[in-house]
Amino acid sequence: MILRPTLVARLKPYREVIGAGVVAALGLWVAAQGGVILVPLGLVIAALGATLALNAWRRARFAQGTSAPGIVELDEGQIGYLAPDLGGYLSLNELVEIRLLTIRGKRMWRLKQSDGQAMLIPVDAAGAERLFDAFVNLAGMDSAALIAALGAPPAENLSEARVVWRRPPAVTKAS
Predict the structure, then answer these.
(1) Percentage helix, strand, coil for the chain under 3-state DSSP, each rounded to 5
(2) Does domain 68-166 have CATH number 2.40.300?
(3) Could you give the angle at the alpha carbon of 29 between the alpha carbons of 28 and 34, nearest 5°?
(4) What is the rounded CA–CA span in Å between residue 136 and residue 133?
(5) d(CA 93, CA 124)
């Protein structure tokens, strides 16, 4: 069976979703075989596949293509953006705010550290899809809200920049 190149190109961003769907289908097949051991085992495999498929679907929706210059790196708790005119590194542990804004028609993530340093990363930079995994692991981040922010219409000016996440205040123990 040979697939058309256009179909392959269209399905490529969803290859993780397809793989996880296959795992879920395999789990359902195992459960359908019946038995005291196979039914629970199959249901666990199907649930795992469904969870992986949901996460892969969100990751696929987060990716915006690669039309902006520069490369996003994610390495040992640091986000790096290397581009001819913008760039730098930020620590995930120091991150306090993520905004989605539009500058000259281009959507960008504005990442701000606790020391006030900020960095702009185009949502369509090469490797920007890696930011999804970094963002969803932040305390208090809602992955559905993160995807919804990308689906919302772009803000017309900087004052309408959408706050996607803020670090929750630290809880101190009373003595």
Answers:
(1) 45, 25, 30
(2) no
(3) 95
(4) 5
(5) 24
What are the φ/ψ torsions at residue 40 (nearest 5 degrees)? -65, -40
Cβ–Cβ under 8 Å, residues 95 and 111: yes
Domain ranges of the chain: 5-62, 68-166
Query: Which tokens go with 75?
Result: 């390495």
Question: Distance (Å, rounded) from C-alpha 100 to C-alpha 110?
Answer: 6
DSSP 86: S
Q: Which residue has the tokens 């809602």?
A: 142
Mean pLDDT of 126-149: 87
- In one-letter notation, the amino acid at residue 11 is L
Put simply, whether the predicted model's pTM sits higher than 0.85 gets the answer: no
77 secondary structure, DSSP code = T
Q: Of the candidates 62, 99, 94, 100, which has an alpha carbon nearest to the alpha carbon of residue 79?
A: 94
Averaged pLDDT of the chain = 86
pLDDT exceeds 70 at position 175: no
Question: For residue 127, with 0-12 CB atoms within 10 Å meaning exposed, 13-18 middle and 19 or more buried, which class applies?
Answer: middle
* Secondary structure (3-state) at 79: strand
